[in-house]
Amino acid sequence: MPAVGGTLDLAAIGTGSALEGAIASTSTPSPAPTSNLQEGIEPGLVSPGLLGFLPVFAIALVCIGLFLSLTAKLRKVNHRQARLDAEEAAAADAATAVGADPAADAGTGRPADESPR
């Protein structure tokens, strides 16, 4: 099939080409699908009903509970870290105001390189 400018040349294919025959032969599934539905029921109208809805709803409730729990725990961690940062900043300010070594450990008053005994 000749291509013109990178596109398919539809004039070269024609209307009765082998390509149309190949498309038409592959459009019907083989073997034909069988339906297990009762007569008179359309496949598009069948739904999972209550037995399909309840598990999905239960999973959604569990996920919401987990998300709320995670949010609460993350807030607690952030609050605790902010409190520790404020305490360390206050201790460093107090140590600097007294004239102590600025490299001193904020909690013990020892220089940072001195190990506990």
Shape: elongated
Number of helices: 3
Give the termini distance in whole angstroms. Answer: 88 Å
What is the tally of beta strands?
2
SSE topology string: EEHHH
What percentage of residues falls in helices of 4 or more residues?
40-55%
Strand content: under 5%
Question: Given the helix and strand composition, which structural class is it?
Answer: mainly alpha
The overall average pLDDT, rounded, is 76
**Can you summarize the main beta sheet?**
2 strands, antiparallel
Low-pLDDT windows of residues:
none
Largest sheet, order of strands side by side?
1-2
What radius of gyration results from the CA coordinates?
37 Å
Give a written overview of the molecule.
Helices cover 54% and strands 3% of the residues. With 117 residues, it is mainly alpha-helical. It has a domain at 48-85. Strand 1 (3-4) and strand 2 (7-8) form a beta hairpin. The mean pLDDT is 76. Keywords: Membrane, Transmembrane, Transmembrane helix. The chain crosses the membrane at residues 50-70. Residues 95-117 are annotated as: Disordered.
